[in-house]
Amino acid sequence: MASIMKLDVEPLLEGLHIFITLRIATTNSMSYRIGCVLLAATLGHWTSTLFAQTAPIEVDGSFTDWNASLATSMDLNVPASGVDLLDFQVTNDGAYLFLKLDLGQEIDLVDELVPHSIQLGIDADDDPSTGTVVQAGYGCELRVRFDTRTVYYNVGGGQTLGMLDLGIVPLPTTTGTSFEMAIPLDIVPDGIHPLFTGSVVRIVFQELDGGDVIPEAGQVFSYTIDGTPVAPWVPIDLDRSDTDLVRITAWNVLNSGLEDPTRAPAFERMLQALRPDVIGFVECYNTTAPEAKALLDAWLPIGGAGWHVLKKNTDMILASRWPILQSWTGLDRQFPVLIDLPPDHPSDLLVSVAHFNCCTADAARQDQADAFAQFMLDAKSPGGTVTLPANTPVALIGDLNLVGYAQQLTTLLTGAIQSTGTYGAGGPLDWDGTDLAATVFPLSDERMAYTWAPSSGSYPPGRLDYFIHTDAAMTVMKAFAVRTERMSGTRLAQYGLLTDDSGDASDHLPITSDVHIGPIAQVALAPRLFLDGPYESATGMMRDDLRAAGLVPLGEPYSAMGMPQVGGGGETTSNLVLSATGNDAIVDWVRLEIREAADPTVIAATRQALLQRDGDVVMADGTAGVSFDAPPGDYYVVVRHRNHLGCMTAATIALSASSVPLDLADPSAVTFGTAAMKSVVGAQTLWPGDATGDGMLKYTGAQNDRDPILGTIGGTTPTATATGYFGTDINMDGVVKYAGAQNDRDPILVNIGGTIPTATRVEQLP
Fold first, then answer.
1. 170 plus 298 within the same structural domain
2. Domain boundary among 481, 497, 517
3. 508, 491: one domain
4. Are residues 485 and 556 in the same domain?
5. Cβ–Cβ under 8 Å, residues 608 and 627
6. Residues 62 and 48 both lie in one domain
7. CA torsion 203→207→213→214, rounded to 10°?
8. Do 526 and 646 sit in the same domain of this protein?
9. Are residues 67 and 160 in the same domain?
């Protein structure tokens, strides 16, 4: 029999009660479960702490914004049959309930490619006596059967619905062992009865075939939907930031949509908002190349001979504002075209428009992926059927229909050919011997990254459209998908769009990338700095409490805070980097900016990096120093942290490809403004206490930094605590405290002077 350990977290946020069950199978030796047992032993103090609730999750299938501080339920038993459920996590923002599910084997969540019967149950009113009883303690108003894509809604008489009625978005769309999903908090599945009517819900995952459940029968996992605001999504500017970039758009136009007079106006408005240089259209069954050219010449006039357009077979069209040098027609459902870029670019550009087989045709898609890998390897080898000049940038764009085995995507990225007898041995596909890159396309106006938004049918939104490229020869500077239904009226007016344009045009969203052709000039810096919150004068180093508690997220937090990105953003690290101990242990993420010499308010480039205990700042992959995508020159350097005041160098620094040291921890380092850094014994540190992130330390008055600390721990019991990755954790020990020893309130008062509560300290940045 499995032993059971139940960890109860007392309610602190409006009755929050999270029950986490660890079930330890005595006969199981899997490393995952061993790690969970060690984690349980390490975190025995959970009974007196509070997990983080709200979080700015971007549903993109990458999971980098999930961390150990979020509400979690783990299952350590191995079922005799069926799929093994390992754990799930829950959080929310102001619009969605987010869930992440980890499994013991690879499956396709919304199909039975691998047999499973995973069901999500939500007791939405926190009342086990209502709804459908799925196990003791759960009366579920909502049940979601993922394999059949069926939603059972037991409110107002009960009825069977589809996933689109629930508004659920699960990713990835391919097979995997982890899945994340979002359910709108304001959803009314049946059009009459809202799902979420209170703040507390009970959640259970079941695998009905094998009987595995999380939490275990007889246990309950409850979650309080938290109203604490998270940083809003910063809408992506649809305009290109640099005219030297090449803009590439891919779009499945749904059954010859360009020729449909009722849909053509929507295509026209959206293309005029995007203004791409190269376009890959698919499903142009009834549209000829001359017809597509006539439409583009009318909608997007470019002068001269107008658009250059080619079509392959039944549905794939490539349109370019520049001449087409060569095309290849031998690949199944792929259309490689070499484009003659202007002389100010270092090379030409090869774009392959693709429309892989849909749905259950996994074998055909794998063949098409193998064929692309063979084409790339041939193109890289002199004397082959296809020969490209070295470092020619290549992009595979279009509707790849990757809805089955993840191996198809793996082959496209790594060159791991499966049918070696037909397509050869395979090998690395990029010019530098590494993998290709697959760009993620967030919605321009929402924290989601799907590219297919059906209006009917049983399948939920998914990621079907891709931009896979040689990142050794080109760099994606901006990428987004446009769903007009998610844009505000102001944003729609700004770009001349209507609310229903994307849905009226197609069920696929246009995906757009701004790319830099060739290597990007970079400058390098070797920064060193201290954060005062975790700094200890006795050791001359910072503590790494957040890392030790597993709270440092794999993804950088600054984009979600609304900080603008220039050439940076979305940096991610690995558990291997976070496993380092000693002087090189990671303390937290920091943000660095280089600013223009002529105007220090203008950000030239950004980079989110990792701060080590000894003050060294390293790249997200753990390599020494920090690089920026910018040409050599003189720049001001700014360092920032999520709850410390930032600072800037007093003078510009000459930056080049050779790394330049910058030791801001040195007391002799001169910074812009007055007392921009705090003097401590033998060093200087960034001022801590900016819990609100507004660039000011305030102890009293409106928008002060003290009240959010009390709010984090519940707002009513000053002696309560909260464990998590919070901006209100001023001393960065992983525990938010309002009162008592080592609390997070006192440093704010100390750092504004210590005697006058109404005093303030302002960040010294121009």
1. no
2. 517
3. yes
4. no
5. no
6. yes
7. -40
8. yes
9. yes
- What pTM does this model have? 0.83
d(CA 92, CA 74): 19
Whole-number Å distance between alpha carbons of 645 and 695: 6
- Based on the fold, state whether residues 292 and 313 are members of the same structural domain: yes
Tell me the backbone φ, ψ of residue 449, rounded to 5 degrees: -140, 55
**Peptide bond between residue 564 and the one before it cis (omega within 30 degrees of 0):** no
pLDDT along the chain (766 residues), means of 10: 28 28 30 39 31 80 88 91 96 96 97 96 96 96 98 93 97 98 97 95 97 93 88 89 93 97 98 98 98 98 97 95 96 97 96 97 98 96 88 98 97 98 97 96 96 96 98 94 98 98 98 94 96 97 96 91 88 94 97 97 96 98 94 97 98 96 97 97 97 94 94 90 94 96 96 93 96
B/e letters for 339-355, b = 16+ CB within 10 Å, e = fewer, are: bebeeebebbbbbbbbb
Range of the domain at 725: 696-762
> Is residue 229 in a domain?
no
- For residue 735, the SS3 value is strand
Q: Are residues 336 and 436 in the same domain?
A: yes
Cα–Cα distance list, 518 to 522, 537, 726, 743, 762 (Å):
12, 47, 40, 51, 42
Distance CA(682)–CA(441), nearest Å, equals 47
Any domain includes 633:
yes
Whether residue 527 is preceded by a cis peptide bond, meaning omega within 30 degrees of 0, is no
Contact 430, 388 (CB under 8 A): no
Please give the tally of structural domains in the chain: 4
Say how far apart CA 561 and CA 64 lie, in whole Å: 15
Name the E strands within 470-585. Answer: 474-481, 511-517, 522-528, 535-536, 541-542
Q: Which residues pair with 641 in a beta bridge?
A: 644
Phi and psi at 218, nearest 5°, equal 95, -10
Q: Final residue of a domain: which of 488, 517, 546?
A: 517
Q: Return the SS3 of 454.
A: coil
Report if residue 231 sits inside a domain: no
CATH of the domain at 418: 3.60.10.10
Q: Can you tell me the distance from the alpha carbon of 501 to that of 445, in angstroms, rounded to the nearest whole number?
A: 15
Kindly write down the DSSP assignment for every residue of 573-616, as one continuous string: --HHHHT--GGG-EEEEEEEEEEESS-TTSEEEEEEEEEETTSB
Structure tokens at 592: 């660095």
3-state secondary structure of 273: helix
Joined together, the tokens standing for residue 116 give 């499973």
Cα distances from 336 to residues 224, 309, 426, 428, 468, in angstroms, run 51, 13, 19, 19, 13
Query: Coil, strand, or helix at residue 59?
Result: strand
Contacts of 66 (CB under 8 A, 6+ apart): 55, 57, 89, 91, 100, 180, 553, 554
